[in-house]
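Write out this protein's structure.
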Amino acid sequence: MTKIKLYNKAKLFIITVLLTLKIFPSVAQDGALTNITGRILEQKTKNGLSGATIHLQGSTNTVTTDDKGAFKLTTYKKAPFLLSISFVGYQTQDVKVAGGESVTVILAETSSQLSEVAVVGYGTQRRKDVTGSIASIPKENLAQVTPSFDNLLQGA
């Protein structure tokens, strides 16, 4: 009697393993491996933007561009893909890609002016929201050669 129970348990175990191997690969990957390549360019000069962020929406895939603005993103998701491209000082752009193709995206500068933003030691704030004093230093003062940044700011 125990041999029959062991035989049935072994048979059940083998069926479970085979079903698991059959089901989980299709759950883990939606489709075939796809490479998305492209370049991110700046609108005025048409030069590549180094360090732009490309995020594949609906996933955790995020890559950054190299020094020429080129990127390569690999995914198992099914096409079409929605890429969100962002770079500091430029408008974020969402681009729909069919897959397996190279894409070129041109980012435009944002309309906000740098004078509206104050850089503080722990982040950035809008100039109108700052409650302390803000000082501006002319660009010419920052071009001087000094042993430390503190010395550069003295008397400015």
